[in-house]
Design goal:
alpha+beta, about 350 residues, about 20% helix, 2 domains, six-stranded mixed β-sheet, Gyrase A, domain 2
Length: about 350
């Protein structure tokens, strides 16, 4: 397994380590439910250094990348982030990603670990003047309603002025870092991209704050599922289009991009299954791979599922026909016909991610 610069810190805090896409990462430290609830109420610290980072420099590089994704990366304003996805020629999702415009002609791109090798090859083949920063970069996510005060206590004053889905370059202990106000939990949070050599010091400084505890992949998964954030490889793949994966609101139709023809055809014809939030009426959780039934007939499949500590019931995502995706539609899942229903996204509605800070 590959290891992040923070691997030795896992032992210090008693982490249980698992193999995640070839990376040794913590699934939990003190416990998934405790970490989940602490992040919702205070601040959780996550090591996401397995993810990919790229620096696209110059208008030619940004224009080339713009043709690979359905989002408008050319028109993105400096200091803003944009969620999008890299598509194949048939409109299938290779990887979802986030771009931050550092300036009018520099784009900082964050991608996932699973398809990183494929994505890196595609980007570097297509986009001139692109630097793959993945091996040299550590990514620390501080998430939770107290995350801002934690970073200010660490001397990261520029976070004070960051609005939702914005970012900037700054420095910490003399090293240049990138910080975005974004995350995967539904809470106020920040993602810090640092050189590997300062990652341990930043981790130790953050975890020493009384509001912070280290958190693993388990809590990251329960947090994101409660708010309906999809996971690449489970909820989306090259077999699914952005329309099926519930991403239509992010699609810029006024430009050309890989797979656009397929998406237009799909939009015109309709009738395709859509990624839908689901929930149970008790603590039992729908699980990945469960068949979903309506009146005894198989109508879809669960792609993500877990117990939601903040909502007290099972939550998940499933591909369902549009006529069965309306919130409250009664369904069953799995071999024991667990009673579930389609739900509104997000299932957990108390998140602080969009809070306005004076």
């Amino acid at each position: 397994m590959q290891c992040t610069p923070l691997f030795d810190e896992y032992t210090v805090h008693g982490a249980k380590v698992v193999d995640f896409h070839g990376w040794g990462l913590p699934v939990q430290f003190s416990g998934i439910i405790q970490e989940h609830l602490h992040t919702r109420g205070h601040a959780g610290l996550f090591d996401c250094s397995h993810m990919g980072e790229f620096l696209l420099q110059g208008t030619a590089a940004i224009q080339a990348f713009d043709s690979l994704v359905f989002g408008d990366m050319i028109g993105l304003k400096a200091g803003r982030c944009r969620y999008t996805a890299i598509l194949n020629g048939h409109g299938g999702i290779i990887d979802d990603c986030v771009g931050l415009k550092l300036s009018e002609d520099i784009l900082y791109l964050v991608t996932n670990a699973g398809p990183l090798e494929q994505v890196a090859a595609l980007i570097q083949k297509t986009c001139p003047d692109t630097e793959n920063l993945s091996e040299a970069t550590a990514k620390l996510d501080i998430q939770g309603p107290h995350s801002r005060e934690v970073l200010l206590a660490l001397g990261l004053d520029p976070v004070a002025g960051l609005g939702y889905w914005t970012g900037a370059r700054t420095s910490w202990r003399g090293k240049q870092i990138v910080v975005t106000r974004a995350g995967y939990t539904g809470e106020l949070g920040y993602e810090l991209f640092t050189p590997n050599e300062v990652a341990v010091d930043l981790w130790r400084a953050a975890v020493a704050h009384p509001e912070v505890i280290p958190c693993g992949l388990g809590a990251r998964d329960t947090l994101r599922t409660e708010v309906g954030y999809p996971l690449n490889g489970d909820d989306m793949s090259e077999a699914k289009t952005p329309l099926e994966a519930g991403m239509e609101r992010f699609v810029c139709w006024d430009k050309e991009f890989n797979g656009k023809k397929r998406l237009l055809e799909q939009k015109e014809c309709g009738g395709y299954a859509v990624l839908t939030a689901i929930k149970s009426n008790n603590r039992q959780a729908p699980r990945h791979g469960f068949e979903v039934k309506h009146n005894g007939e198989v109508v879809g499949e669960v792609t993500s599922g877990t117990f939601g500590p903040s909502v007290g019931c099972g939550v998940g995502l499933a591909y369902l026909p549009p006529v069965l995706s309306a919130p409250g539609t009664p369904l069953t899942a799995g071999p024991r016909d667990l009673a579930i229903e389609a739900a509104e996204i997000p299932v957990y509605k108390g998140g602080t991610c969009r809070i306005k800070i004076p």
